[in-house]
Amino acid sequence: MKRRVLIGSAAVAAFAGAARAQESFPTRPLSMVVAFPPGGQADVVGRPVAAALERIWRVAVPIVNRGGAAGAIGNASVARATPDGYTLLMALSSMALLPEAARVNGREPTYTPDMLAPIALFSADPTVLVVPSASPIRTIEQFIADAKARPGQVSYSSAGNYSALHVPMAQLSQAAGLDMLHVPFQGGGPALTALLAGQVNCLASGPGPIAPHVRSGALRPIATWGRTRLAGFEEVPTLIEKGFPDCEFYIWVGLFAPAATPAPVIARIRDASRLVSADPEFRRAMEASGNTIDHRDGEAFQRFYGEDAARLVRVVRALGKIE
């Protein structure tokens, strides 16, 4: 009986300690790593999320842009960070495919997806194919015809090899039998700048970063990678409806922590993420940037993340080694 009482007391103490950890977190500033330079999709979503968390927690949540290697450097820095909840990652969908890309190219991955714990999804939009408004290309049919007529000459920018801006263009190239020139940059922001500066012919981007330039008339959207037409881009056809059923790709943005982060702390961050999704200022910022809020957490995010990761790994294996 005495032993059972001691065990029971230990369990109660452990539960109380976990509860205190959840209730007290955070007690100091956090860092939210974005594995790309400013201006890309993860940055566009991450900044209003961080601002909302600051309002909720009353502590600073600065964005740390840690670009390089298509996001692998920043992703790995969080995967290997102290698992206390004070270093978070605002990740893109490419997070799941980069370790497989390393293996395909004969390298040891700098991190693996199981080193990061998914907390909450904030947005998941299909990529949009855009060209400069000065381009004579106005439809996807014209785009494909032009690329076939000029093999190796139609160029597109991306956030790096195997990035979330590269893979959808590789999908289209494979599906339509195109030979296009891939010009990788260190992030979505620089890739977009290159298009606006006339250095490349096109770009596949999440809707958020390109929306202001579409509204201003600087860029023209001609196709999307969604299963259905994208809100705000209803006049733009999907590649699926144009006869390319395998061209489906979503740039999602989600919050992750190191996998060994205590469950009560993860729960605390997850609870705050729900408040973020309902925060009026966050919702206004997302609308202004052209991003659709798609909040999921717990099992719903786990399931979405697992299914998408499996699809992306298949794409990387088909893409193969990049010299």
UniProtKB/TrEMBL annotation:
Residues 1-21 form the signal peptide. Keywords: Signal. The keyword Signal applies. It holds the Pfam family TctC. InterPro entries: BUG, Bug_dom1. It comes from the Bacteria. SUPFAM superfamilies: Periplasmic binding protein-like II (SSF53850). The keyword Signal applies. Belongs to the UPF0065 (bug) family. PANTHER family: BLR1237 PROTEIN, TRICARBOXYLATE-BINDING PROTEIN. This is Tripartite tricarboxylate transporter substrate binding protein.
